[in-house]
Amino acid sequence: MSRKRCLILGASGGIGEAIVHRVVEDGWAAGVQYYTNEEKIRSMQQDVPKDQWAGAFQGDLSTEEDLNAFLNLLPAEWDAVIFAGGHMYSGMFQDMDAEDMDALYYVHVKALWMTTRHVLPYMIQQKHGNIIVISSIFGTEGASMEVAYSSVKGAQNTFVKGLGRELAPSHIRVNAVAPGLIQTKMNGHLTLEDLQALENDIPMGRAGTPDEVADAAGFLLGGASRYVTGQILHVNGGWS
């Protein structure tokens, strides 16, 4: 019996890597997308049994041309897709230039749209599928100094809600995980003082871990969530 196949976009990031390991532990074959960190992907492959490695696919998702090139090389037969990639922009909104805005839009929104459209025909034909988006607390709450990032994460959340309704009759579930403050390189710009101030504002008193986000994704991927679709699962220690 062949294994079900799950594609993880942004697999070389802290959360993406944790999700790859969780998916493999749960018995899936994992395919991974990455941009530049080929060394991390090679190391990851060594930890995955050969029959659970569904391939590595390099791709820059930040421009129309590069996104199309990636999709032209990406197989379309996946039972599940988890969007865990992306980057943020921290700074005053009026200081952003159009290039920074475009990159956020393509990586977080257009790549989500286009990749989902790429894999849907197979899922619809099979009458099953699972799409999971790693969004952000800022997609529901918004954040000063991260306004554009908040807006693309908000777009992800409403995409999940709309598509979840649209695909439910085809037995394809669509959900999101919205992490709060997580211990990843994305938050490496924070000073120790800033980090402590944020943790003091979190009811559970600490930042979350990539594994805790991966556990939430694993729940949404598994049978225990078979009646869950169009939902945003908040993993934030009570922070709001």
Automatic annotation (TrEMBL):
Q: For this UniProt entry, which segments traverse the membrane?
A: none
Looking up CDD domains in the UniProt record yields: SDR_c (cd05233)
- Origin: domain of life: Bacteria
- InterPro entries according to UniProt: NAD(P)-bd_dom_sf, SDR_fam
Q: Which Pfam families match?
A: adh_short_C2 (PF13561)
Matching PANTHER family? 3-OXOACYL-[ACYL-CARRIER-PROTEIN] REDUCTASE, CHLOROPLASTIC, SHORT-CHAIN DEHYDROGENASES/REDUCTASES FAMILY MEMBER
Family note:
Belongs to the short-chain dehydrogenases/reductases (SDR) family.
Kindly give the NCBIfam families that the UniProt entry links to this protein.
EF_P_mod_YmfI
What's the protein here called? SDR family oxidoreductase
